[in-house]
Amino acid sequence: MILNKLDMDLLNTIADIKGVPSGALNVRLNGTAVLRQSSPNIMVGPNADGSGLLVEIKPGTHDETVHVPVILTQAGLQDKVYNTFIVGEGADATIIAGCGIHNESHAVSQHDGIHEIIVKAGAKLKYTEKHYGEGSPAGKRVLNPTTIITVHAGGSAELEMVQIKGVDNTIRSTVAHVHEKGSLKIIERLLTQDEQQAESDIEIILEGSDSTAQVLSRAVAQGQSYQVFRAVLIGKESCLGHVECDAILMDKARIKSIPELQAEKADAVLTHEAAIGKIAGEQLIKLMSLGLTEDDAVNTILEGFLR
Amino acid sequence: MLKMENIHMQVNNDSGEDIEILKGINIEFAKGKVYAITGPNGGGKSSIAKVIMGIYRHSKGRILLNGEDISELSLTERAMKGIGYAFQQPTRFKGLTIGSILKIASPEADPMHIRKYLRDVGLCPEDYLDRDLGAGLSGGEIKRIEMAQLLLRSPLISIFDEPEAGVDLWTIQKLLGLILSRYKNNTTKTAVIITHNEKIIPMCDEILVVDGGVITAQGTPKEIWHLIKDDIECKVRYQCQGDVIYDIK
Questions:
Q1: Does B41 contact A at CB distance below 8 Å?
Q2: Which residue of chain B comes nearest to A286, CA vs CA?
Q3: Which of A157, A186, A52 is nearest to A112 (CA)?
Q4: Model pTM?
Q5: Which end of chain B is more exposed for a tag (fewer CB within 10 A), N or C?
């Protein structure tokens, strides 16, 4: 077995993998694919220039999952991968990505994952990406994911992007193009602690008529961490778009939220709402009145908020 | 069961001056009884409840629970000792499900038990257990969930702060039935209902009228009707608020 206990623990954390899952799979360990398998409906292979993966989900595939997690345990490794996912017409599939870094050294371990996702006409995609870091406080764990997604006519996609904890620096970039009657939902949940920094840029271009997009961002910043959230919605046709950003600020942390709406047609309906604040005192009191300590009450509120 | 001895409570007003909200409250809540605390708005009813729970701190006096002085105990410690409070305006939580809050309220409760209590407050478990305790719920729904938590938790002393607010008549009758059957003649537990509701008050064992930070009347419903009837000041105050609370005939 190429994967040791540490690797398996990381896989469990980021992708809920406890053994080798059946079905389509690619596990990338320290820059190399160590487990790869295709299924009858999902082809997993190298892309043309060898910089990453090409995952093709056959048209009409029903309710299948492909796992493509990445783990870094080699100290100081700078890993970069370019993966392309094509969800065929009318397919219904789930992609479970994510990256876990274990770094016990003083060096910087970094993974830059560029994912291009094409959701063909009438296809339905659920995409989950969890990021997690652990190890020595002296070392740095850096994760810079880029997601470029195109949702074709009548297609739908839900992206759930989560930073669990332990990531020192992240610059997240998500660009989406949504075509006629296509729909996109992005759920982003970020936790930063200590001196960590996170920057998330989301740009959604609603290109087609009757296209829809929804962005739900939940952020918790603790310690002296700093987060910047930018969400840009561009409505080029009759469309519906909404951005919601909620953030809990603790200790001496800082959060900046910058929503931007750009409507280019009178029938484009774009809205945003943002709220940043500390944990509400009445929430703490309520949970403490049920017997929780203040610390347990805070943890319960944060876990729920980032759920 | 629970005794408040000469309880005073002060707060600062906008000008920074000390204002006395409770002015020497003496109450003894006995086991197996259901109490109603009533009186005009701003009179100190909820302050008494919050002082008992430990949400507000009293400035003078002491609180005894089964003979133990709990005055210095924190909110959490009092909850663990067996005091429970259903808030008048329940808090909403983003991301916390109704099932989760009920489990926090009673960690030992099995799923069947939790479902039963949701049904008891008129909510279908299948529809509600996995729902967020957030903005998607109506005022009446969240109020019923608040009551379900306290009924499920079943502490030694349960304080219901205006349970009728925002709840339909059918449900409040049902909830009142639950409270009365649970607490009347119970050998170990007590219920306190802060209420203005003329249907709830007569069904309680004992009534306390709180006005201006003091208890102005105390007794059985029959005794209290008579006292209120004779208390012109109190009566006028209610009527001036356009809210005749009691049938005082």
A1: no
A2: B91
A3: A52
A4: 0.85
A5: C
